Amino acid sequence: MRTYVASLAFVALLAACAGSRPFAVTPPGSSVDASASRPQTISTKDLFVVFQYGSTGFALILQNGTFKYVGEINGLGLPYGSWVDSHGLYIASYSRYPDIVEFSSPSKAPFSYTAHVSYPLAVTTDSSGNVYETDNSGWINEYAQRKDATKKRCAVTYPVGVAVDGAGHVFVTLDSTGASQIVEFTDFSTCSSQTLGVKLRRGEEMALDKSDNIIVCDADARTVDIIKPPYKSVSGHLGSGFKGPVDVTINSANNRVWIVDATAKIVYDLYYPSGKLVAKLAFTAGTPISAVDGSNYVP
Fold first, then answer.
1. Angle at 242 between CA 227 and CA 206, to 5 degrees
2. What are the CA-CA distances from residue 283 to residues 42, 158, 213, 269 (Å)?
3. Cβ pair 55, 78 in contact under 8 A
4. Per-residue pLDDT, 34
5. Minimum mean pLDDT among 61-75, 142-156, 266-280: which range?
6. pLDDT range class, residue 177, cuts 50, 70, 90
7. What share of the chain is helix, strand, coil (3-state, %, to 5)?
8. What is the DSSP letter of 19?
9. pLDDT confidence of residue 56
10. At a CB cut-off of 8 Å and minimum separation 6, what does 147 contact?
11. Sequence-separated (6 or more) residues with CB below 8 Å from residue 82
12. Region 134-152: what's the mean pLDDT?
């Protein structure tokens, strides 16, 4: 079992290492005080930014809107994707003990999904709370809420990002340099799937809006693409000036998105669908790899 410095459960969190790791956040008109090391009250309204830091990682917790430092979660192995729903915060950790860890209520310890997890890259849930993990070993794994046994597994080559729509269709980006595609599992229970017509240079994480438009990061093209049904081509782009976008989430109101540019070490807060900048969070230590808050959209 992995040991976590902070047992995040939307309650008191002790940021034991807050002063030991230098970082800076510079959104317009705000700053982060990383000197405090005291119990903090946090909630799913906070912003969670997940970092890779050498061979390990941590999640920085910022107060949404002001970006004031709240705390951090350490001991995450080498984290990749993250997700928040009504059950809690999920983080995919790609390390010596690979798992999807779920932090939830105060009365519950962090829960690890480990069954058939080898190299987890992304995590999401559906409206019923089922958990989906893309695994670099070539599988999409589905779990019932807090059950460490795969409910269903579907094989796919080089899966990266994952999103589930309101009808239960599972969308997965495939990492194929120069010719990345998206697969839609129209019936995950039988692994029935189709490859969408759209082509990307290197697809990373994705999100779905309320109209089932796909918002996907194309790291090599340095774009965040909007792809409308029937998903034959890129319909437009969101924002600009990215160096290496890898992660995107959209809020439940469908009017704001978080985009993580790992190459530039920047997290963008943009209006949707205009792409107008709300805030730009620049980090000086570690590599931000994903960002999510409690208002994110769960179809």
1. 35
2. 21, 29, 30, 14
3. yes
4. 34
5. 61-75
6. low
7. 0, 45, 55
8. T
9. 87
10. none
11. 48, 50, 59, 89, 90, 91, 92, 123, 290, 291, 292
12. 97
Which residues, 6 or more positions from 38, have their beta carbon under 8 angstroms from its beta carbon?
Answer: 14, 15
Cis peptide before 245 (omega within 30 of 0): no
Are 107 and 122 within 8 A, CB to CB? no
Confidence class of residue 200 from pLDDT cuts 50, 70 and 90? Answer: very high
Written as six digits, the tokens of 77 are 């192995």
pLDDT digits (tens, 9 = 90+) for 33-42: 333 333 334 4
Q: How many alpha carbons lie under 13 Å from residue 203 in its C-beta half-sphere? A: 31
* pLDDT score of 187 more than 70: yes
Q: Is pLDDT of 32 > 60? A: no
Is the peptide bond between 120 and the residue preceding it cis, with omega within 30 degrees of 0? no
CA–CA gap between residue 55 and residue 67 (Å, rounded): 26
What lies within 8 Å, CB to CB, of 126 at 6+ separation is 132, 164, 168, 298, 299
- 187 CB-near residues (< 8 Å, 6+ apart): none
**If you average pLDDT over residues 204-219, what whole number do you get?**
97
State the pLDDT at residue 45. 75
Six token digits for residue 278: 């709300």
Pairing of strands 39-41, 47-53: unpaired
- Which residue in the block uniquely carries the two structure tokens 């709240």? 70
235 CB-contact burial (10 Å; exposed 0-12 / middle 13-18 / buried 19+): middle
The whole-angstrom separation of Cα 197 and Cα 193 is 13
Rg of the chain (C-alpha set): 18
